[in-house]
Design goal:
Layout (H helix, E strand, L loop, with lengths): L12 H8 L4 E5 L6 H15 L8 E9 L2 H15 L6 E3 L4 E7 L2 E9 L16 E5 L6 H10 L15 E6 L7 H9 L4 E5 L18 H8 L2 H7 L10 E3 L6 H4 L13 E7 L3 E9 L5 E10 L3 H15 L5 E5 L14 H7 L4 E3 L5 H12 L2 E2 L2 E2 L1 E3 L4 H10 L1 E5 L5 E3 L9 H13 L18 E2 L1
Parallel strand pairs: 1-7, 1-8, 2-5, 2-6, 6-7, 10-13, 12-17, 13-14
Antiparallel strand pairs: 3-4, 4-5, 9-18, 10-11, 11-12, 15-16, 18-19, 19-20
Helix pairs in contact: 11-13, 12-13
Amino acid sequence: MADDSINYHPAGATLTRFHQSDAFARLLVGPVGSGKSVASIAEILARSIAQAPGTDGIRRSRWLAIRGTYGELTSTTLRSWNDWVPARFGRMVQSQPIVHHLQFGDVDLEVNFLSADRDDDVKKLLSFEATGCWLNEGREIPRAIFNAALARVGRFPAQRNGGCTWSGLIIDSNPAGVDHWLHRLFVEERPEGFELFHQPGGRTTQAENLQNLPAGYYERLALSMPQDWCRVYVDSEWGFAFDGRSVFTEYSDKLHTAPEVLEALPLSPVIVGVDFGLAGSAAVFLQQDARGRYLLIHELVAEQTGVETFGRLLAQELSQAFAGNEVSIYCDPAANQRSQLDERTALGFLKGMGLPAKAAPTNDILLRLEAVRRVLSRLVEGRPGLMICPNATHIRKALAGGYHYQRINASGTARYQEMPQKDEHSHIADALQYALLGTGEGHIPKRNQALKRPEFSLM
């Protein structure tokens, strides 16, 4: 390797910050083709050079490089590695795991390539004592593998031989679903020593690594691929992992999420949307600012909770967060139907507690969805017509794709159910629909202006 050189330069500000960080666990997220894997490879080499020498003057380090499946490991991860670090640099052992042992100058670097896409693959890591670990395309790797890797790093070289100058994990990935462990750990929880480096979307003016891509690369992808796919792989937004199609493709978590926690407006009326369910209930709390933008201030989600208990929770939320505000509550019209168990209705429960509850103007699914789409697509003085508090994670997950059309298992063209899937995300999404219907966003067309039903197929 003495006669060869590797010339690497970070292809963007995000990658530069990634290399400058000494955080124990670093997640590098970005669109396809943004240089994430190459940056991870460069980071391994840089850390091996920065390792302090042992008593014999040799800088020893050992890394784990993990990819989901063996096929992806050999066809993608290893190919990227060998593009920058050819097999002739040192000794490549084709075993289980595949090992590349590099010796150049005073550096002794061993990289072990493993596949692990199931929880029971944890046993593959048990015998390793490593300096660091690279999880390539982390969204495809189970949390159990990440947890196991946490316990394997920082153990080579041993403390008696000087220990590690730096140890930890680096993860590169396209954005995962907002319910994925990567999002929960690096966005929602963010423990001390964990850092997120999120590259801009490929169609933005801040896009990175464009100099190493064909002209118009992202624009061509956007023309040929579905919008849900582009949201993740082109625009670098957290999406949703499901076998279906998002109901609200107009939603952008980056665009529609407020940059800071939203506080209640003291003089603005509160519009509450409520959806009751057998397994639980949900509510959203909206206000309009002086510009007419909707602000989703709070959400309330309760699983395995009856109407009476949820009503008490709703009343408590209103008294604590919106004391003194005028309140209007809009519910699923079905909540006005009598229970099969007694003569009372869900609306009756709420009214009996002194809550100003009424049925939403309609339960027509097309009108409900159109009300939300209209607001999501609206711009008010260049800002989104709906801004959501970053703490309202349930509605954000639903809008980002949790609320979806289920794919129909059929050969040929991809087809989807005409009605959104009923699951844990549908309650909060329905609550938003009822709230916006209550504000007048939904309108009933004239008889000769029936809404056109969308075609749920992708060519």
